[in-house]
Amino acid sequence: MNFITIKTILLFSFFSLFSVIVRTQSNEYPIIPVPAELVPQKGSFTLNDKTQLYFQNTMDSSFEEAFYLFREHLKRSTGFDLPKANTNSGKNIIICKLNTNLEKDEAYKLLVSRSKIEIEAKTPIGLFYALQSIRQLLPMEFEQTTLSTSTKWNIPCCVINDAPTFVYRGLHMDVCRHFVSVEEVKKYIDQIAMLKLNTFHWHLTDDQAWRIEIKKYPKLTTVGAYRNRTLQGHNNDYPRVWDNTRTGGFYTQEEIKDVVDYARKRFVTIIPEIEMPGHATAVVASYPELSCSGGPFDVEGRWGVFNDVFCTKDETFSFLEDVLTEVAALFPSPYIHIGGDECPKVRWKRCHACQQRMKDEGLEDEHQLQSYFVKRMETVVHKLGKRIIGWDEILEGGIAPDATVMSWRGIAGGISAAKQGHDVIMTPSEAMYFDFYQSSLHTEPLAIGGYLPIERVYAFNPYVKELEPKDLKHILGVQANTWTEYMPDAQHREMMVFPRVAALAEVGWTSEKNKDFDSFAIRLPKLMKRYDIMGINYSRAFYSVVGTAINDGGLKLKLSTIAPETSIHYTTDGSDPTLSSPIYREPIPVGEKEMVVKAISVKNNKVMYIPYERSFIANKAGGQKVVFENADGVRFEQNGSGNLTDCTMGGRPVSRPDWFSYAGTDGSITIEFEKLTSISKITFSSANQNNVLVYSPKSINFLVSEDGTTFFPVGAVWHQQMAAAKGKAIVSFTPKKVKKIKLEIAMYGIIPNTEPNSGEMSALFVDEIIVE
Ligand code: TNX
User: Fold this and answer.
1) Smallest CA separation from ligand 1 atom 7, residue
2) Ligand 1 near 666 CB (within 6 A)
3) Secondary structure (DSSP) of 63-116
4) Do 544-616 and 625-771 agree at the fold level?
5) Distance 573 CA to ligand 1 centre (A)
6) What is the pLDDT of residue 236?
7) Distances (CA, A) of 716 to 120, 357, 669, 700
8) Whole-prediction pTM value?
């Protein structure tokens, strides 16, 4: 045997050993987020009615308090009391020790042996987190609210040394678009705590409601907490459909105090968000004098961004100071979130008071006026002993001196803020928006748009590579956002948040070198079983079949699932797949003829999720190389230009995945065929949904080339023709052998004043270029 073979064998056995370790560890120690260090040991500790509890050198009662909830919980499902021991010398004992040598406040050490459990922590939080780990090592029946007499309460032996990577690990919830009861908020906080997240960002005010009682301004809730109608379906749907039932609700200050205390016991900080200067329709509906025009206004029932924002007159600032004074007294959090996102400037441009303010303060434009607004509010918040957080728009026109930025429009705002020496919480929509679709199945319940499967959440690293090492200290951590426009009830909200939140937890807690999706994917189903017991309506999209178009000697459909130990069964004749349908083994050729592929994922003989279903059209351009060029402003959805030749039509509305889209200058799309291909018809299929700023192009020139360099025109189509043909531009010609086709696209551009949304930039959405 030569050296290379030996080395290969050694390497190979090392890797297979490694994956065996990961697998057994993940199976027997299914802790999420995965601990920084976990060394498995043989045997297990068994909890029983004789198990005792001992607090060693813990100074005050705070450690015992941190244990309290676990003890209560344990009593419910096991019936064991955990009486206190007099000494630490016995067996069958849980010992909690103060260890001031641990580096981080949230760190803990856990030693589970056959005879005892030892927990070391520097603070009560560390102890609380050690208990969350023990919880996930206990049988899942621990989650029951009733006694389980048949369970053996074993905890596998191990040594754990654990601490978080990021100090800020947050989950947000918008309770304005739909009211969320106190009970549901508490259930949410329970889940936050179990996964060692430490912050709940409570989005309390928006255009569609004001949800927090403010004693000095009762109309904020008598008027602002209710609306008369709510949009049904998607904001992009036309015509609009309304539910005309009056809905709403708010939290009294007593209820807020109760929730804050509930969160405190679970080591969760609540950051309240009071939106300003935009997203303020509910306020100006209640107190129209705080707007530029004076109103009147209704609390909004549509989704989106609205023009009637806070006016920058003095009355607004005294109102907001009063409001924040009451808010600050309710929340012990060191931060108040002041929003700052999506504030249109149209009213300020025409408002005498705002224009005067700009003159007096020497402000050049309305962005600087927004910056003035935020800075002025920062001084108010400082007076209240707290600091501000704002969405990344607060960078525009100059950031307030001490502000922390939540970067949501991608990571650019976060990078820029960190470079300027500001703290940052990363919450980019493409990785952290739980209102996005979590599978690409067209049968997913309606969502706002986007595509965010759990593995994309998992893959996010808040230490984005564009940051320089010196700026990393400003990245406090990560947060996911649950905007609820399309989540009308608790069941639906849970479906969108769980289990993606488990991936978030690992992003916030686990260092990049310890992150491993395969191990996570083994641990996740165990958490799902706990969710079953806890009555959480989590999504099983983790098990969905994913279809990817690949070009491998023609266009083929690759089917896969990210869930381990699942197989895929499929059909191509339109019939519903069953356990006896063929097992998928290799990519399926598509695009030659019309075809429907349906597929299910199966684990332990059970169908795991709603079937994958995709209709394919015949398209000679299927899988061929596409080049899109324009001077600027390219913005892609999902697969970008690959969507143009994937033989599938985009879902409606256009917010669903599968579209190629951009807003910008004129451009061209070139398709290059692998071999000379005879063609006689090209169809360009776009969306022309003017109510949502989506317009078919002004015109398209169609060209073909036999040698790949010289192009000849074969037709041109104008916007009016496309508008009349539901966005389609079709050219037919006598058959030609071609190497390339090119579409020269003149964009519709700025929307003219004869149309809705005039003055705004239109966007182009194309789902397919079909060549016959
Ligand atoms: C933008 S994220 C918003 C919210 C919407 C959300 C929907 C942010 C700071 N503002 O008002 O609910 O998009 O994804």
Assistant:
1) 483
2) no
3) HHHHHHHHHHHHHHHH----PBPS-S-SSSEEEEEE-TT-SSTT-EEEEE-SSE
4) no
5) 42
6) 79
7) 74, 52, 14, 6
8) 0.89
Domain boundaries in the chain? 6-162, 168-510, 544-616, 625-771
pLDDT at 723: 96
- Alpha helices of 109-227 — where are they, by DSSP H? 124-137, 182-194, 219-222
Atom of ligand 1 nearest to the CA of 484: 12
Give the nearest ligand 1 atom to 409 CA: 2
Pocket of ligand 1 contains residue 435 by CB under 6 Å: yes
Nearest residue by C-alpha to atom 4 in ligand 1: 483
Distance from the CA of 52 to the center of ligand 1, in angstroms? 49
At 24 the pLDDT is 67
CATH class assigned to 544-616: mainly beta
For ligand 1, whether the C-beta of 408 sits within 6 Å is: yes
- Cis preceding-peptide flag for 296 (omega within 30 of 0): yes
Q: Confirm or reject: Cβ of 448 under 6 Å from ligand 1.
A: yes
Q: Spell out the SS3 assignment of 442-469.
A: CCCCCCCEEECCHHHHHHCCCCCCCCCH
Q: Which residues are annotated as catalytic?
A: 206, 279, 342
pLDDT of residue 659: 83
Q: Which of 306, 425, 483, 486 to mutate to test the pocket of ligand 1 (most atoms within 8 A of CB)?
A: 483
496 CB near ligand 1 (under 6 Å): no
Please give the distance, rounded to the nearest whole angstrom, from the Cα atom of residue 240 to the centre of ligand 1. 21
Instruction: Provide the CATH number for the domain formed by 168-510 in this structure.
Output: 3.20.20.80
pLDDT at 3: 44
- Ligand 1 atom having least distance to the Cα of 485: 12
pLDDT in tens, 237-263: 878 899 999 999 999 999 999 999 999
What parts of the chain have a pLDDT lower than 50?
1-8, 10-12, 15
Superfamily in which the 625-771 domain is placed by CATH: Galactose-binding domain-like (2.60.120.260)
pLDDT of residue 635: 58
Is 342 a pocket residue for ligand 1 (Cβ < 6 Å)? Answer: yes
Which CATH architecture describes the domain 6-162?
2-Layer Sandwich (3.30)
Amino acid 4: pLDDT: 46
Distance CA 455, CA 544 (A): 12
Residue with tokens 């050729």: 589
> What pLDDT is attached to residue 2?
47
